[in-house]
Amino acid sequence: MPLFLPTDFFASVSRITPEYLKQRGIRALILDVDNTLTEHGSQDLPEEVELWLCQMKAAGISLIVASNNFKKRVAPFAARIGLPFASFSLKPLPRGLAKARRALGLPKEQIALVGDQIFTDALGANLYGITMLLVVPRAEDTKWNIRFKRKLEVPFIRHYYKKGGKLHE
Ligand SMILES: [Mg+2]
C-alpha cells in the first residue's frame, strides 16, 4: 500500500508553495504534464499554472518536465513554458526519473515528483525514492484506459485520507 500513496495531496499545482517546499528541503520538481499542468493532450497554459511556474522559478526551485506521453505532445508544451523535458519517460519505471534527476544534479531527498496519477506518478516516485506530490486531475478523463485507472485509484486515495492525509485546497 505505501508504494501507491502520495506524500501529500493538492487541489492544484498552484497550491504548492515555495514555503511548503523550503520546509521540506525540496529544491527541484519533476513535473508531469497531462492533467497536472494542463488538460490531457492540451497545449493551453492556464494562467494560474503560468503564474505558479513563475513563482517557483523566482523562488529558485529547479523544474523539469517528465511525461509518459510522446515527444510530439510534450516538446511544444515544454518549450512554451521554457523547461527541459523527458518525454516517453516510462513512469513508474525508474529510468525516466533517474534521467531527470541527473539533469537536475540534486540528491533524491531534494526532489519531488508532481503528478496526477497513482499508478504512474505515485508508484514511480515511491519506487524511485523521492517525495510524491499528487494533484487533483485538471479535467475529467476521456480516454477509456485512464478512466478505468481512476476507478482503481479510489481505494488508495481513501487509504491516504484514512491515514490522516489531507487535501491542500
Ligand atoms: Mg498525468
Explain the overall architecture.
The chain is of the alpha/beta class. It has a single domain (2-168), classed as Rossmann fold. 41% of the residues lie in helices and 15% in strands. The chain contains six helices and seven strands, in the order E-H-E-H-E-H-E-H-E-H-E-H-E. It has helices at 18-23, 47-58, 71-80, 94-104, 118-128, 144-162; strands at residues 8-10, 28-31, 62-66, 85-86, 111-115, 131-135, 167-168. A seven-stranded parallel beta sheet has the order 4-3-2-5-6-1-7. Helix 3 (71-80) links the parallel strand 3 and strand 4 (85-86). It is globular, with a radius of gyration of 15 Å. The two termini are 24 Å apart. Bound molecules: magnesium ion. Residues 32, 34-36, 115-117 line the site of magnesium ion.
Compute the average pLDDT. 95
Total strand count, please?
Answer: 7
What ligands does this structure carry? magnesium ion
The CATH superfamily name is HAD superfamily/HAD-like
Q: How much strand? A: 15-25%
User: Helicity range of the residues?
Assistant: 40-55%
Task: Determine Rg (CA atoms, Å).
Answer: 15 Å
Largest sheet: 7 strands, parallel
Number of domains: 1
Question: What best-fitting shape do the alpha-carbon axes yield?
Answer: globular
CATH topology category name? Rossmann fold
- Class, according to the CATH hierarchy? Alpha Beta
Task: Give the helices and strands as they follow along the chain.
Answer: EHEHEHEHEHEHE
CATH architecture: 3-Layer(aba) Sandwich
| Low-confidence region ranges | none
Distance between the termini: 24 Å
